[in-house]
Amino acid sequence: MVYLLLVLGFVLLVKGADYFVESTAAIAKLLRISPLLVGLTIVAFGTGAPEATVSIIAALEGSAGVTLGNVVGSNIINIALVVGVTAFLSPLKVTNATIKKEIPFAFLACIVLLVLMSDQYLENNAVNVITRGDGIIFLLFFAIFLYYVIEAARNNRSQMEKEITEQPDKRKWGRHILFSTGGLAAIIFGGYLVVESSTEIAIRFGMSETLVGLTIVAIGSSLPELVISVTAALKKESEIALGNIVGSSIFNILFVLGAASLIIPLPVETKIYFDVIVMLILTIVLFIFSRTECKVGKLEGLLLVAAYIGYLVYIIIRN
């Protein structure tokens, strides 16, 4: 039975991503805005739902330490593994706005996290903790990001309305919304089935729960981003692919940590600093790669995947 659930999970992931990408791209055309902006918002926040759910529930249940690890780990997987695999399969085109604004904003989010979690170093406190006050700061930065996206969408729509004279078929709205919502639901549920069933299979074969958590579960929680980004890139909707990844990284740090730390202060373990530094370095590397011919190519994608494998080996040995 567990093998059937695994197959069903993968089917839901693949078909859900297929419908979701096509429908969100169509919605972008109906709204007359760039697919990149849809990727930064609707797609990114939707695929970030699993991480948000896990982190907020962990905070509610008092397992606050899980929240920070989940967010940082998911962002590392997104930037290294998801971008790497996607770019290796189909080079990702990068817009000027992404290079000049979105990726730097993701870098800023990493810096804000590093500063707010360094109470011992900056304020000589006894412990490092992300407080409720820090949570408000995260959410204020998230509000600034949303304002930027809304203004960018408004300007982009005005420009596209000048270029496109054909009126959109409003009868297709309901169909595209239904398919995008249904596709996202299939992705999230399919990801859940894959994680649960593959974890059970792995334990049957003698893998420890710790190793399973660091590999299968960590990657499984990022399956929505991976599947959607790969599908979008293969469908030549690379703006959605990269927007999804960058938007998810910003959403995870600013919204998820902001909301979770408002529920309960989040203690910071010393070893998580290494992971945050890795996340910061990978964001810089993504920025550098994006500036080379305004795309992330196959070789660069391969280097990112290799970097994630090296990081994965290290954390397995460390833990």
From TrEMBL:
Q: Mention any Pfam family matching this sequence.
A: Na_Ca_ex
Q: What is its main location?
A: membrane
Sodium/calcium exchanger membrane region domain residues: 3-150, 178-316
List where in the cell it is found: Membrane
Instruction: List all membrane-crossing ranges.
Output: 75-92, 104-123, 135-153, 173-194, 214-234, 241-266, 272-289, 301-317
Residues of the signal peptide: none
Alphabetical list of Gene3D superfamilies matching this protein: NCX, central ion-binding region
Q: Which UniProt keywords apply?
A: Membrane, Transmembrane, Transmembrane helix
Membrane topology per record: Multi-pass membrane protein
Q: Which NCBIfam families match?
A: calcium/sodium antiporter
Supply the name of the protein: Calcium/sodium antiporter
Q: Which organism is it from?
A: Thalassorhabdus alkalitolerans
